[in-house]
Amino acid sequence: xxxxxxxxxxxxxxxxxxxxxxxxxxxxxxxxxxxxxxxxxxxxxxxxxxxxxxxxxxxxxxxxxxxxxxxxxxxxxxxxxxxxxxxxxxxxxxxxxxxxxxxxxxxxxxxxxxxxxxxxxxxxxxxxxxxxxxxxxxxxxxxxxxxxxxxxxxxx
Length: 156
Hints:
2 domains
């Protein structure tokens, strides 16, 4: 999802600009922060993080409960809707990033689980380390020959 920013010049009276500033900076921004805080402190947040998404109606429900709060009262409904959309966008992006990071971490964890120390390999295979190393060299030579790579180029 991409977001475009449009810059415009507001030509209005001082009173109108002041009222708009109060709505945006003193009411709507704290509303967005409160929604974020409520969402992060929600009991199901960890489940959502693991799934990589949150239910679409949860921010709407939180927003409806905050509408009655005196701190946020007096805002036009489009400001509440805008705050809801911003919070949904933030968390959709954040959950996607967290999901990617978790996949990378899981892949690396799998790789680390596969790797064994020399002692573990000797114990598992019930053979000496020299026998294991010789077998590994043979396997690598076969793979390299199958791919048509000259061993001399690799200095093996």
